[in-house]
UniProtKB/TrEMBL annotation:
Any GO MF annotation of the entry: ATP hydrolysis activity
Record flagged with keyword Transport: yes
Source organism per UniProt: Tistrella mobilis (strain KA081020-065)
Name of this chain's protein: Branched-chain amino acid ABC transporter ATP-binding protein
Family affiliation: Belongs to the ABC transporter superfamily.
Biological processes annotated in GO: L-amino acid transport
Keyword terms of this UniProt record: Amino-acid transport, ATP-binding, Nucleotide-binding, Transport
PROSITE patterns from the UniProt entry: ABC_TRANSPORTER_1, ABC_TRANSPORTER_2
UniProt entry tagged with the keyword Ligase: no
Amino acid sequence: MLTLDGVSVQYGAFRVLQDISITVGQGELVVLLGANGAGKSTLFRTISGLHRITRGRIVFDGDDISKAAPAKIVGRGIAHCPEGRRLFPDLSVAKNLMLGAYTCRGDQAAVARTLARVHELFPILVEKADQPAGSLSGGQQQMVAIGRALMGRPRLLMLDEPTLGLAPLVVRQVLDAAAEICRSGTTVLLAEQNAHAALAIADRGYVIETGRITTEGTREALMSDDEVRRAYVGA
């Protein structure tokens, strides 16, 4: 579904991504592991069209989207749930969710079905629907952010550090939701520092360090890799 072929991104004289090549197959949950500052968010923003590549190409569903505008990329079916959630804090939970449905606003029946799916994943959002998004706990705000991304009915959902700063119980809830989203037919690309929890739900993974892919493999291969375990799993 998604292929990055030799992608590099440069800020002035500094190359922040260097010859990145990854693939994400339809129906997969692929995790991108890396420490803070390794390049995970830059990679996601590049796929979303927010950063321009200096070399390589990005192909989604057979089409080169390397130079496509962010709005066009969203319209093709790629949704990006950014690190830090980026909600509209003064708007209600319900309004934040509906903003995510902008690209499919012409099909109100589909919007209603998708909203029902979001509420099934995160029942607390029904209770909190009329509250300002900024008044919610960090975990609940993350649920709103994921739900907002899902409201666009994406084929590929990119989740950037969705568990950052959350309590262990909420981390489990968020990652369980990511796994359920994938089982329901939406391909997921997940960026995480929490390698142990992320690999538990992933099909495959990549390790990114200082803007380069250094390791790749199946969940089992990465979990058994001594260097990956020492650096990211803590074992």
